[in-house]
Amino acid sequence: MDAKINNFFESVGAFFGGGDQIPWCDPDIIVGCEREVAEATNGASDELKSESIMRLSWALVHSRQAEDVQRGIAMLEASLANTGSPLQKREKLYLLAVGYYRSGDYTRCRQLLDKCLEIAPDWRQAITLKKTVEDRIAKDGVIGIGITATVVGLVVGGIAAAVARKK
To answer: 13 to each of 16, 34, 140, 144, 154, how far by Cα in Å?
Structure first.
């Protein structure tokens, strides 16, 4: 019986908590990537600069700090225009999608994932994130409907109580 109760509370907690499988990045990794970008900027090849900027972008969009995520989104959007290969474009689009997911813009995230999947239709990471995003959108809709129904119920109950008092 206790196991069933625990499973119930875990499922309710998972419903309201999210529970995505996207990794987080520690601040010390971001600092290391920033140092790497600074070193690459001082005379390194364009390829090395590009790789270090991609690593920093990855770290930023996987950060727990909202300002880091926004900085990662800005870096990726700025570099998206001069992307050469479809593989690089796919990677940048995916990282942008992760950034928008982390910042709560699920609609933009889903749009970017659709573009990713146009380039690579069977890419598992993008498919998995898209399912997570669609689940989150559905869950937010259910929560919104529940809140709306509760408010309507309270208003109707308040009106009914006021009418009953007057009689």
So the answer is: 5, 36, 14, 17, 25
